[in-house]
Design brief:
With about 130 residues, the chain is α+β, with helices and mostly antiparallel strands. It has 6 helices and 2 strands; from the N terminus they run E-H-E-H-H-H-H-H.
Length: about 130
Amino acid sequence: MTQISSNSIDIINAMELFEHVEDISSGLKECYRVLKENGVLLISAPFLYHIHADPYGFQRWTNTKWKNELTKLGFKIEKIFTMGRYFTVLGDMLKLLIQSFLKIYKYLGFLLFRILDRIVKLDKSFFVKKMFI
């Protein structure tokens, strides 16, 4: 981002990006450099999700690691929240399993995707939120 001036950006939207960056700390330093004083950095990153290439997948950071690294660089963290919990991970893993099946079984398995999408909604239930906070 060397072509971007320091303190020139209001908002950086880094959705599902940093798991594909080998040196996240350097990327975060650049974000800090180009953000204006009250600029906002929005980050979304998977944790319990299979490693996938785009073109490469390098790592998954915990909330503690994100807090430590962002604070070290001078960022003020306003909010960190979990988007998916147990049923989201279960649904993703079952979909990944189905995709690895032989052709005929794979197509039959695709019929389950709509059911798995419904099961994921259980993560938003009061019970799950209370248990996994």
